[in-house]
What we know:
With 188 residues, the protein is α/β, with parallel strands linked by helices. 31% of the residues lie in helices and 18% in strands. The chain is elongated, with a radius of gyration of 29 Å.
Amino acid sequence: MSIQELQHIITEDLFFFEKELKADQGKQDSNHSVETEKPKTLPKTVHLTTSTPSTEEIKLEPLKVRGNFEKGILVLHEEAELKSEVMDMLVKMINAVGHSMNEVGLLSSKELEGRTLTELYDLNAHIVLKFGRLKHPINALPASDYQIHMEKETEYLFADALTTISEDKVLKGKLWNTLKILFNIAKK
């Protein structure tokens, strides 16, 4: 483990000793006469500073959703940044189900990393669209890809990454068919 990883486990100050005093060296020094004995010094110590997390650092800020998130539609995506063509596809998809991007909130996998399921529930999303792989406990929900899953009062739809869907016509069709069911869109 590195020092940075250990600082979360060990909260006391650590000291690094370059040389250790040997027990037999101490015995030899006591046999010398007091006149020839050099003043004993401790080995050079290097103080390793570990930043003990303060109570402010332990409490993470609430999740900040990108977008207005007016209607409680939350889009979780694998990509750190959505490319313009992928974002265009997402905008068209949201518009096609009768909503606008003002009603949607976006969170990337990176923004969710290290966050709990409770923090996600605290956002009070009514519909969660999860695209791709996320490093988050939401993966534990028993939802299958391209199937609608209801948990309490929230509907979930898990699908492939937005980038993958944007490049595959079959996946686009699969997603669209599920979105029509989720958003109750009848064929016209």
